[in-house]
Design goal:
The protein is built from 16 helices and 19 strands. It has 415 residues and is α/β, with parallel strands linked by helices.
Length: 415
């Protein structure tokens, strides 16, 4: 069989869900794997992260330039964690045969600190399963890089023995700095994983690398390898694991946590969500503070504009700001409504960028009228109690309007 067919078979055996944005050289792979086509690549990886929160393994298939659109949630997931494995299969068009640029996607391993595997003709099945296991072991996304040479090659049917592991979300008692420190410790462990992988092997005196990031062998071995694309392995042969930087910072060791401003208009809505035990995916922005005491509503955050799609396949509740939605959440909201996914999308609308200096934001209602949103005043507790409930069937968007108190700052609360 062709490499495309072998990879598709491996994905069908190892993954529960599959999303894609087609493009050369992976269009046929996406079709063979029965992938759901999404509105863009960022939404695809966000859906996959939501599946992960729900305990489902998920694959995303994109071409090299499509991986660029995944960058924000890809990087965030390394520090924030995940549960079931998420694997992005990225097709590098190394000769620009069907693309306007050439790009080597292996470099995202270094940017996002994620494991990168590049199967050869003997390892497409084991490499895919190893990528899922690495994703779950290190609680971050894994990349599988493929090229037309592999996709078009004749390869044997891939053996795949699925062995699910369990990843984990970041400890909620860690500060964001503490989460990054904990992620660095797992990154250090990835170096030993890559060096010890049985997928890497010597044949006829030639070393064959499959776990291409972190470096899979001694520097002198990697310096002699012939590579497809740029000399990634040679460039990274001297790379060392991150050094431990003391114990990861916790709210308790720092002595305080941050929460919403004392006069924040959205306290009533947050109190309702907390009192009902509703759990949300939070956007970056003020909504991220809902992960902290006293509300503890949010369970995860994967970057600005990411809560909508992650929640649609995850918790079912997205907590976002008007700026985050306009920034990069609208594409996801469109896709969610097209698929009629069960989602309660809560928009905290204060007409400002609350985390970046209070700059003005356009009226979000002008741009989501098609979603027929329910609009509530932030102080209308009776209305909030009626609408802040899981939707029946398809999606519902609730816009809560409130004005930020002038000159206020996020509260610092002793922990």
């Amino acid at each position: 069989m062709k490499g495309t067919e072998a990879l598709a078979l491996a994905l069908l055996r190892s993954a529960d869900r599959c999303y894609a944005v087609p493009g050369y050289p992976v269009s046929e792979l996406a079709a063979s794997a029965g992938a759901t086509i999404t509105i863009n690549e960022k939404v695809a990886i966000e859906y996959a992260l939501g599946d992960s929160l729900s305990g489902r393994r998920a694959t995303v298939i994109v071409k090299h330039v499509g991986l660029n659109a995944c960058a924000d949630p890809l990087v965030h997931a390394t520090a924030q964690g995940l549960r079931a494995g998420v694997v992005v299969v990225v097709g590098d068009d190394i000769r620009a045969a069907g693309s306007d640029v050439v790009q080597d996607s292996r470099y995202y391993g270094e940017v996002a600190r994620v494991p990168v595997l590049e199967p050869d003709g003997e390892t497409p099945g084991p490499a895919v399963e190893a990528a899922f296991q690495a994703s779950e072991t290190f609680s971050r996304v894994a990349l599988v890089r493929v090229t037309p040479d592999l996709l078009d090659a004749d390869v044997p049917e891939p053996p795949v023995i699925r062995t699910d592991r369990t990843g984990g979300l970041a400890d909620p008692d860690l500060t964001m700095a503490g989460r990054a420190q904990t992620a660095d410790r797992r990154t250090a462990a990835m170096f030993a994983w890559s060096r010890s992988s049985p997928l890497n092997r010597s044949a006829g005196g030639v070393f064959r690398a499959v776990t291409v990031y972190p470096p899979p062998a001694d520097p002198d071995v990697l310096a002699r390898l012939r590579e497809t694309g740029r000399p990634f392995l040679s460039e990274h042969r001297l790379l060392a694991p991150p050094e431990p930087a003391g114990e990861p910072e916790r709210f308790s060791s720092r002595g305080f946590s941050r929460t919403f401003c004392r006069g924040c208009p959205f306290h009533p809505a947050l109190a309702i969500l907390s009192g009902r035990g509703m759990r949300a995916v939070c956007d970056a922005g003020c909504a991220i503070l809902a992960m902290n005491p006293p509300y503890r509503v949010g369970i995860a955050t994967y970057g600005l504009g990411s809560s909508v799609a992650v929640a649609a396949t995850g918790t079912g509740v997205a907590l976002t700001g008007d700026y985050a939605l306009l920034h990069s959440g609208l594409n996801a909201l469109i896709d969610v409504y097209e698929r009629k996914l069960p989602l309660l999308c809560i928009v905290l609308a204060n007409n400002r960028m609350g985390m970046t200096g209070g700059h003005p934001v356009p009226n979000v209602l002008r741009y989501i009228a098609w979603a027929d949103p329910v609009v509530c005043a932030a102080d209308d507790t009776a209305a909030l109690r009626r609408v802040l409930v899981p939707p029946e069937g398809g999606p519902r968007t609730v816009v809560i309007e409130g004005a930020c108190p002038e000159g206020a700052r996020h509260e610092t609360v002793a922990y």
